[in-house]
Amino acid sequence: MSTIRIQKLTKRYGSVLAVDDLSFDVRPGQVTGFLGPNGSGKTTTLRILLGLAAPTAGTAAIDGLAYHQLPDPVRQVGAALDSNTFHPGRSAAQHLRVMATATGLPRRRVDEVLGLVGLADAAGRAVGGYSLGMRQRLSLAGALLGDPGVLVFDEPLNGLDPDGIRWLRGLLRELAAQDRTVFVSSHLLTEVAQTVDEVVVLSRGRLVAQTTLADLVARTSVVRARTPDAARLLEVLAAAGLQVRLVDTSTVEVRSATADAVGVAAAAAGVTILELSRQEEDLESLFFDLVQQNHQNQEVAA
Amino acid sequence: MNGTLRLARAELRKLFTTKALPVSFAIAIVLAIGSVIIDAMVAGKNGTARLGTDADVYQMLKFGAITCVVMLILGILAAGSEFRHRTIIPVLLATPHRARIFAVKVAVIAGLGAVFSAVLFGLGLATIVLTLSAHGIHHLPSGVGTLFAGTVISSACFGMIGVALGALTRNTIGAIVAAIVWALFIEQVILATIVPGIEKWLPTAAAIGLTDIPSPAHGLPPMTAGLVLAGYAVALLLAASRTTMRRDLA
Lengths: 302, 250
What we know:
A: alpha/beta
């Protein structure tokens, strides 16, 4: 069981602060989404984690070790960072055989992963003729080559067709079910919402949230309660510290609360509830709200 | 098998799975054998040396120019294309030891340069021997061994210089153009004009000192030329390894 630990990580490129005092853990046995808008520092964090860039301060470790200290990296960590890391003149099989030769993996493993990612039929073709989706699959094959316990994928759904997306979601779930640590970055929450158990949300290089997806949705969801005594319910919920507003004479809207919490508070105060419904807020708006909130906080702090 | 040998095998696999190596080797062999045949055909005509004389055989044995250019280009491609095609990323993910990867790449290219130049020299020499035998000439000048050693050493050095240039520039086309402009123009014309006498201490002239007819009056003796060329290769490799070790990969 392997754990990724990011501690007080900072990366500065000249005057640009790409990652700012970032700390979080990624646990095994689940899929963890690494979310943030483009330029929020996700890829920089992953590159530092994988030893491709040096941190300005802080550490990024896998099982307590920096990437270059891992005794057998290819069997411990598999990473797919970019779908354009292939020589266009080599075939997929040749690319993977180079990796297998360098790391002492058996040749049959190349055939296995090519079959696993659905590239067996195209294995002998030059990668220069591959579609983006095929290159993405080859990148995933490279990550899986050493059958590692930790998998790091940067925007893995880019370029995949709907079938490919469904396949990859299943694969990610399967890998997590095998007790592996699966860490997947994306700039779209909706893209990974069906797959991730936990999310780490980044904005302008800073941690905005680390929580389960269910909790994130609950924290930012909107619940509407229809009641014959809206004024009383408004008063009760406000006293309970919830964000409330009156929608109309019989409807109260509550933000960042579960329907259960609203129901229990109303029952305790003896207020009749005629209807209680959670408004399915667009996940992307929710994500945007979180990020915007962080921007505003940073501007106020500045 | 230990990690370094595995990396060396992987480097060779990389080289032999792209078209650059077989195409450039094939062109070099055709040029080498073709030049021997043409030299033999024109020997003794228009003021050229008579067939089978020492001067004529030395003229035919100038294979070093071909192998040095080929190995310079292959060295640049071996290092530069890792950055151009971003294959350096899977390489470093599999083996996160930059110094070892760089050292193995240098050793493989130098070794390949030595073997290839030896084979090409052997093929060229065999062609010369067959051609001379056909004309009833059965002797070779005494400097063949020196030229063979010079060709092998200079090819290995130019391969290493190519790796250094590829790693420093990370731009294969730019590095190849810059190397050609340096050898043909900057070294031979500009620097030779600005600082008379310096040209023989520069890389191309040092290579000529190793691979051409020994002429100490105009150039460096082979031993000195070899040391000068190796010095340039080491200096460039040190600069390249320094940047390779420190550079963030975006």
